[in-house]
Amino acid sequence: MRRRFSFIAAILLCVTAVLAGCGTKDAESVVKDLDKTLSSLDSYTGKGVMTLYTGQQPLEYQVDVSFQKPQYYRIALTNAKKDITQIVLRNDEGVFVLTPRLNKVFRFQSDWPANQGQVYLYQTLVQSILLDNSRQFAVDNDAYVFDVLANYQNGSLARQKIWLNKSDYAPNKVEVSDANNAVMVSVKFDSFKFGSKLEKSVFDTQKNMGTPAAGGDQPTMAYPDNGSNADNANSSNNNASSDNASASPDNNGTDNAATNGSTDNTATNGNADNTATNGSAGNAATNGNADSGNNANATGNSPDDNASTDADNSANNSADDNAAGDSDDALAPAGSGDAGGTFIGMDPTYFPDGVSEKDNQSIVFGGNPGIMIRYSGTYDYTLIETQPKDVAVSATKGELKDLGFTYGLLSGGAEDEQRTLTWTYAGTEFRITSANLPEEEMIKIAQSVQGEMSK
Questions:
Q1: Is the peptide bond before 113 cis (omega within 30 degrees of 0)?
Q2: Hey, which of 25, 34, 69, 452 has its CA 20 to 30 A from 147?
Q3: Are the C-beta atoms of residues 41 and 175 closer than 8 Å to each other?
Q4: Bridge-partner residues for 140, per DSSP?
Q5: Which residue from 346, 322, 345, 317 is spatially nearest to 332, judged by alpha carbons?
Q6: Mean pLDDT per 10-residue run, the chain (455 residues)?
């Protein structure tokens, strides 16, 4: 009997030795290694496929991410079917959102991504493991699997499972679930390499836009955190124009100073169509373009001051009355502007509880055809969809928001004021404006907008 026990004990010791030789570790050992890996991280590159399950149909995006110590990031999100790529850069000059196809650049003064977790960033994944003391650990073939709390802007994302390669702790797969354990976001990495040698040009704004550093056509740029006109989004102060004259760089080399105290806001370069809505002189002459008073960045990250004002009024059932009579470039019923052609919008598939569509009408916004849909009930909000053709943008203050498939801009003031979430998808610019719609609900609605209008 003793011999039998001795024999079994010897077998267990051998199995333990074999497992140790194969590199299997317990959770505590892996966590310690991850902490060391994160502190010594110099650079990495990764490619994979991100799938969003937030709409009626799963949406796939190619993800290409690069990091270089100390704070250089490049993330490219590509929708292969629609041939659209959006790039997020962080370099010495700030944080940029680029849409090369539309020649759009938007700049943020932000500590991103430190304040916003990203499911495809190694730092975010490892930090979530280190910070969750109630983490769950398992071994799955050649991977260590952690089940931890999710810490993302979208509050409906509750937990995430992270697969890390046993050999080097590189991420293999990530699944983020809601409170009902339904997978909402997944990322499967096709490749991930530590210690990649990256040139500084990888993180250069002009290089990523495909434009020369000097000369030639320069991309349109906006500076949302420029404080000189941050408070003009919902103001009718006609004496603010002098501060806004230099809020955004003029690609044509003109100062574009607006006429002080005038609701006509004629720019000095002769573009006399920059009439601001509601008499706000602070909205004129952003980039020397005739439509600059009302057009937003086609990246979906720069709602202009007039759009916010117009959409705010529409949320209060008076958008077309207040906007149409103020400017040809503002919000107007379809047929009252110069824009030609038809516009087919996209239908949101998510509605907050107690909310229903109030009305839907074709409009002209910023000289371009579009639609305006108003919703009422538990929350009152307005969705405006357009396809802007102009390159002008306006400077406005806002926060960079990760929508999963793209990045948006949330602008607005205190909790009791109107806020607007603006983003771009498939060449269409979207704006949700409301005084009482929570940010989390705004993001859910934005993530659900896909497909052509069903009506």
A1: yes
A2: 69
A3: no
A4: 143
A5: 322
A6: 57 51 77 96 96 82 95 91 84 87 75 83 96 95 95 84 96 95 95 94 91 47 43 37 36 38 38 37 37 38 40 40 38 54 79 93 86 95 82 53 82 74 82 92 86 50
